[in-house]
Every structure is written in C-alpha cells, then in structure tokens.
Specification:
Rossmann fold, 5 helices, 27% strand
C-alpha cells in the first residue's frame, strides 16, 4: 500500500491511523524493519518524523534518508536509545517469530516518552487456517495499540 494516497485519510488503515496520530516532529522507531517497506510508507505519510530502525539483518540501504539504523537481536540486546526518547514505536510482523517477545515489549516501553504509544501487528491465526485464501495473496492481520500509563 502506498501511504502517500492515505495522507489525508489515515483512518482507512490502522497503521496509518497510528502514524498519523504521532505528535509532529517527534521520533518513531520501527522494530524489525526488514527491507524498509513500512519505513518508506511511514516517511511518505509523515515526512516530519525522525525515524529510527532496528533489525537483526535489515536492509538499511532501502530505508528513508536520515533513518538511524541499528543492527540488534531484539530478544537479547537492549535498544541503544535512552529512556523516554521516542514518541512512538512500531513492531509489525515480528513478535510471532520470537521466543522472548516480552523483552521487545519491555524495551519498547522503556524508550517511550510518557504518553507514548506502541503499535504491534501480527498475522491473524485465521491466516493459517485459510490456505486457499493465503495462496491467493489475501491475509488477515491483528493489530494491537498499547498506550502506556
């Protein structure tokens, strides 16, 4: 999906809703950034945000210009940013691959500013049951928005 077209209608997509609600000129970190597709979409929707990214392998050459990248194992390595340094954290299609996903959530909570928000997206279990639908490129997702107190 090209978020350039959703800039004025972010309510169409839960990811876009989350990104659009991030305060202006703040910092957002994407955990498990992979090939950078999501980061590029975030930059299209919100070019004012200062982006950071973490991945065990990652492809930072495909990330938006100015994106700060760190190569880390999120199950074992702490995030290198100080406490309360991020307004928003995204984590899309990562936690289902981890055995220690609680460490990722704990680190995300640590770097979030007071009132900051965490968005986690993971495949819906139904995707596993509907092989004929999955074979046709259709998938379902579950999204979780966590608002720390």
């Amino acid at each position: 999906m090209n978020w350039r077209y959703l800039r004025w209608a972010p309510w169409v997509d839960t990811r876009a809703q989350f990104v659009a609600a991030t305060p202006r000129d703040e910092r957002l970190i994407d955990l498990g950034s992979s090939d950078g597709e999501t980061l590029r979409h975030i930059a299209e929707l919100r070019p004012d945000l200062r982006l950071s990214a973490v991945d065990m392998s990652g492809e930072p050459e495909h990330y938006p210009a100015g994106c700060e990248f760190r190569r880390l194992n999120l199950e074992h390595d702490p995030l290198p940013w100080p406490e309360a340094s991020m307004a928003a954290v995204t984590c899309m299609h990562l936690v289902e691959h981890l055995t220690n996903w609680a460490a990722v959530v704990d680190e995300a909570a640590r770097v979030l500013q007071p009132g900051g928000r965490l968005y986690i997206e993971t495949p819906h279990p139904r995707t596993l049951e509907l092989t004929s639908v999955a074979d046709q490129g259709v998938s379902f997702t579950r999204s979780y928005l966590i608002n720390p107190i």
